[in-house]
Design a protein that fits this description.
By secondary structure, the chain is of the alpha/beta class. It has 16 helices and 13 strands. The relative contact order is 0.12.
Length: 472
């Protein structure tokens, strides 16, 4: 068995982030049959405090042999089955930082516990029936959420909003399978199956699977975020745009071309979606070796981005340099950002706007979006964010159910279930024997069961829980 699947014994781990001189509290979590005995060995609770489940005790952690004081702490007791893992669980709430929690963890390991594997606490919760796999993955998504919307979607999974429709679909498939198998075993005693009714039921199940699959792109977007690269010639206002957008001074802004020599990153949230914004060096031919490296990195960032903001200087108009950059990024989803409109006269601005509209309609197939900004004056940012959201929603990203967002593993299982159901329909249409109907129907049932964990293999568990942090 893999290490992550070896869930015997009492385990311990630090359950909070360990950062030097940061945080007021550090927690060491212990789960297993010896958790209470270990707590009684290490923790001294003065007075007449009662060691009962779901009580918090105040006291001291001492070395059991030397009686040396290690920390002043709180002890939280959660006896089985009313705990996260449905085992006896104790938590030592120590002072934050590094030394206190590390010393307490070491004492736990020296007195009968072993270090938990990544995700082992949640794995035990799953194996003991407290969580299904969708809820376990919801916990991981909640811990890693990069925006309020991502957190809400993770909570929906944790509350079973994905598990419920999956279980219902699987139950419907099992009902159909029971009907078919009954005809196989008791053909003479039961009326024949109505092929059209069976196909209709399968089509309803497949339609619901399709609806759930429509949330995959949204789920990926919420989990990984949108990578946006700001590209353009030197001194068109890319750094000013980043600073205005992030409401900070992340990038250095001067009137000298080539000030930005490397890619500058900023993390933002747009419409509930995490966005990683990359301010790149101005793209141009240069003999400066350092600037040349920055330009090359800018090209790589643009090619790897989900969305490119091609920034243009409105006062200079569309130049050969802009055309050259456009030709390098035209294969990417694109928004034209016409910056520095505050420097353009009224009449010239209208003429320039007409030329850009014409260009976007004819030569920019991935996006006709264009935004006019004056980044130095903090103008046009709302319009930019609106344009980004419109591009997201114009494609596959917009989900049918905004409360749910499946991940890649769940999408793969749903896709397999849908393929199996389509094969069942084909088998029925070809009028093959009933035994053939059951083969692919069982495949669909198994695929749906893999999502919630009713049908699960060691390799699947290993893959899921190895991504968790130690202590969760």
């Amino acid at each position: 068995m893999s290490e992550v699947f070896a869930t015997t014994g009492t385990i311990a781990a630090i359950a909070t982030a360990v950062v030097p001189q940061q945080g007021s509290v550090g927690i060491v979590r212990v789960s297993g049959s010896q958790a209470m005995a270990l707590a009684q060995t290490l923790f001294h609770a003065p007075g007449r405090q009662v060691w009962e489940s779901h009580q918090i005790l105040y006291g001291y952690i001492r070395h059991p042999q030397t009686q040396q004081l290690v920390d002043e702490a709180l002890l939280l007791i959660m006896k089985a089955p009313r705990s996260y893992t449905r085992e006896d669980v104790v938590e030592f709430h120590c002072h934050g930082g590094i030394m206190a929690v590390q010393q307490v963890l070491q004492l736990c390991l020296e007195n009968g516990a072993r270090l938990a594997q990544p995700g082992e606490f949640t794995l035990r919760a799953f194996l003991n029936g407290r969580l299904d796999l969708t809820q376990a993955e919801g916990i991981a998504d909640l811990v890693g959420a990069k925006s309020p919307q991502a957190a809400q979607t993770a909570l929906a999974g944790l509350q079973g909003k994905l598990a419920h429709p999956i279980r219902q679909l699987r139950a419907n498939c099992l009902d159909i399978l029971a009907e078919i198998e009954a005809r196989i075993d008791f053909e003479e005693d039961l009326p024949p199956l109505d092929d059209k009714v069976i196909i209709s039921e399968i089509e309803k199940i497949a339609a619901e699977i399709t609806r759930l699959l429509a949330t995959k792109d949204k789920g990926e977007l919420l989990r990984t975020g949108l990578k946006v690269a700001i590209v353009g010639r030197p001194n068109v206002g890319k750094s000013s745009l980043l600073n205005a957008w992030s409401q900070s001074d992340r990038a250095i802004v001067t009137d000298l071309p080539g000030t930005t020599r490397d890619v500058v990153e900023s993390q933002l949230v747009v419409g509930g979606i995490p966005v990683q914004v990359l301010d790149t060096a101005g793209i141009r031919e240069t003999t400066d070796q350092v600037e040349k490296i920055g330009v090359e990195r800018s090209r790589r960032a643009a090619n790897a981005a989900d969305l490119v903001l091609l920034t243009i200087d409105a006062s200079a108009g569309w130049t050969e340099g802009d055309q050259e950059i456009y030709e390098q990024v035209q294969h990417r989803p694109l928004i034209l950002v016409i910056n520095k409109i505050d420097l353009v006269e009224e009449g010239k601005s209208k003429n320039f706007q007409y030329k850009i509209v014409r260009l976007s309609e004819v030569e920019v197939p991935n996006s006709k979006s264009q935004i006019f900004t004056a980044a130095a004056q903090n103008q046009g940012i709302d319009a930019l964010e609106k344009a980004i959201l419109e591009i997201i929603q114009s494609g596959k990203v917009q989900a049918a159910d905004m409360d749910l967002a499946i991940n890649q593993r769940q999408a793969a299982a749903l896709t397999q279930a849908k393929i199996s159901l389509e094969q069942v329909q084909a088998t029925i249409t070809q009028q093959l024997p009933l035994d053939f109907w059951t083969i692919d129907l069982r495949g669909a049932i198994q695929a749906l069961g893999e999502i919630t964990g009713e049908e699960v293999t060691e390799s699947v568990l290993d893959k899921i829980f190895s991504k968790f942090c130690i202590g969760k």
